[in-house]
Amino acid sequence: MSRDWRVALSMVLVMASASASGCFGGDDNDIDSSDLSVDVDVLASGFFQTIELQSSVKMSVYVPYLLLDPETGFVQNSTVIDIEKGSTATLDVLVPPRSDGIYLLLGEYGRVHWPIRSESESWSTWATRGGDEGLDDAGAIRVPANDTTFDTLEIQPAVMAGSVEVKFIPSIREPSVAIEEGGGHSSGMLHGRIVYERLYEISDPTDTLDPVDGKAGYFDRWAGQGNPAYEDAALYIIGNLESFGLEVIAHRYEYTDIMNVQNPEAYNICAYKWGSVYPDEWMVFGAHFDVAPPANAVLLDPHVVGFRTYGTRAGAYDNSAGTAMVMETARALADFDTRRTMVFCLWSGEEGGKRGSDY
Description:
By secondary structure, this protein is α+β, with helices and mostly antiparallel strands. The protein is built from 7 helices and 15 strands.
């Protein structure tokens, strides 16, 4: 009889031990980074890339990067997904262009509170300093999906989120051509080589028979009275932005010189990609496309006196570079559907006192 109760007690202890280890359907509370596998070893930086996550235990994964909503096509900033044991999840993630990889935060299934990096640090710095211990006095709270496919997160300053496991996936940003061919630029959605080529197109110094400025590029973009070179450059920008499928509007504003004559080049060029949910909420990308007047003393400023003097012609640094960046950003983002409106503006009259952007 005594032997029977000992056997029964042994069986109870064995079952209790097995249940605690998860063999009898217990919760997988002890999560390790090795419990999550990714179908790629090295990611391509600067692009949206499809990745498949597979978990050997039940867990939640915080993905703190831009990703595409598969239902709406909108871009969303971070999410948390739940993965069942043995299941997979597929995401289209934008791998940051200026980092060595991405960091996925792993926690118990259904987790709500998550640690988060500060605005002034990268995820790499956060991980190195032990941010995964979750002892910071701020965190993120998971918010159930409303008009999105994925849950979102809200930063809360008084949340001590607790520790997480971290899964690191390395990435590399490859140049599009060999280094000896000028491939020191960055690649990605917004391509460094293409931005440079746009810059060169605008400031190309090759002599031509162009009656406006005698150059292959768009020189002499001074916002003075009746400057045909300025108008020529504006038409070039308008035509290119329209070719991206954007609605382009030239916003003219009033600015007169000392003779009380309206400056005909006082207008901004703005291209619109209208948002489908909140069209009246705008994200604005801007740069000025006029170049420094030949002499910037007030009495010689063509914005003021109404005629041109002598000076800068190409303006490659100030500000053809900014113009090229905004134009290529518009090209790269034109095909994305967004909730809010994206506006790509090239301001006039900056050299005379930021008049276009103030308007």
